[in-house]
Design a protein that fits this description.
- The chain contains 10 helices and 7 strands.
- With 229 residues, it is of the alpha/beta class.
- The strands form 2 sheets. A 4-stranded parallel sheet has the order 5-4-6-7, sandwiched between helices.
- α5 packs across α10.
- The longest helix is centred in the N-terminal third of the chain and has 19 residues.
- The radius of gyration is 17 Å and the shape is globular.
Length: 229
Amino acid sequence: MSKHIGIVAVSSEGAALCYRTICLEGSKLMGTHGHPEITMHTFPFQDYVKFIEADQWQELGDLMLESARKLSKTGVDFVISPDNAVHQSLDMVRQLSPLPWLHIAEVVADEAVDRGLKRLVVFGTRWLMEGPVYATKLSARNIQCEIPGPDVRNEIDRIIWMELVKGSIEINSRQYFQEIILHHKRHGCDGVVLGCTEIPLLITEKDSALPVLDSTRLLARAALKYALA
């Protein structure tokens, strides 16, 4: 029997992509229509955003712990969250959780090692790019972590909050990402981390001049592997 997966959803678009990936790719491993048992919980998105904007990471971590407690009562065996920025809080509270967590940046870092990537540019919200989540996990594996300059970070942040989390996919925004990826390739990066779980809705491997580390789907696949281990 497979383990029961718990999802702390946070934003709807990223969580939906993660859920779909588990279900669709689960059938490749477990037979037609097969996938592990999944239970999802989320507080209103505005509750997370309020703490992120106020830099109240401990309080956001407490919110994640409460989700884990609720999920544990449903029989969940372990938890994932298809939201990158909130993992800054997860590192603060992980040891207090009633359930084990798969950490999205650790999953991405493992994939980078497997693919032999050494210098990654990270895209995400402003808090994710400027925060410790990927810098910490990548450096622990001797992988260089770069982020775009301030103006680019602001535009990427705008696209995420004003478009992607609302499910709006704009051609001009895709072209903007492609230009930034190409710029970082020319300056020595050998891969790009899509470190906002909605960015894979806009950019895929075929759209990118660099190898893509799709944090959303990588987390979903890691959850499948863990559930079936």
